[in-house]
Amino acid sequence: MSMWRKVLNITSWVLLASYLGVSLWYTNERMSRLTFDGVIVNIADSLKSQFVTPSDITAILAKQGIWSVGKKLDEVNRDDVKNTIKTLTGVKDALVYSTPEGTLYIQVWQRTPVMRYIGQFTSFYIDSDGQEMALSQKYSARVLVITGSGDKIYLKDSLFPMVRSIREEAFLDELIEEIAINEDHTLEIIPRIGDQRIFFGEAGGYEWKLSKLKVFYEKGLPNVGWNRYSQIDLRYSNQVVARKWSEKERQIRDSVRGISDTVKIEKPKKKV
Length: 272
Known about the structure:
The protein has seven helices and 13 strands. By secondary structure, the protein is α/β, with parallel strands linked by helices. A hairpin with a 5-residue loop joins strand 9 and strand 10. It folds into two domains: 73 residues, membrane protein fhac (Ubiquitin-like (UB roll)), CATH 3.10.20; 152 residues, Rossmann fold, CATH 3.40.50. The longest helix is centred in the N-terminal third of the chain and has 32 residues. The chain has a ten-stranded mixed sheet with strand order 6-5-4-7-8-9-10-11-12-13. 36% of the residues lie in helices and 26% in strands.
């Protein structure tokens, strides 16, 4: 009885292997004859950014001769499709697969710029990974603008962490429109509201300086008026030094001669 059972088991495995072999051969033979009849492209985060569109994807694939309707499925290399798509400005990653019916599916994710540097001879984004990103002729992202004397190493190593911290704080992200870099790498912040010049000093210690700035705008300025001060200085350890201006001085902002006010800001106590 056990002998027959062994024979039956062996026969079953042989039949199963033969079936799988025939099925695989049939599938491969069928796939080799099938051709692409269409492509479906989905931009996963199209509501946030519009650096690329589905037509951009199909256009570059057609231009490179990598994909076109009527091409056989086994002639299209998915890695080539993915790598070609990633050459487009603003593309972070892509997923490429096809169905046995002959449809090519492409899922695309875009890069997220967090700041834009505008220099004398160049302009580019830096994305959420701290990497340089070329500008797009089709779409301009609403991000914090950096101007002045900034080299790429300084922007990535010193300024990017500060900008990322600003972007993570909703109040500061709405408040700060531009950061100007002086030749000595000290910073000046240009706010979206008010006429103040905000002297930030060096990027080091930005967490405490940004905290002082937020407190001053939330608790100090609403009580005295948004346009009372011409200058706000964050370079001192536990103070915000604000300089008033008169109507005459408002007209000659390059030669401000006002009365200095000092606002005491206590450092937050460390949590035990």
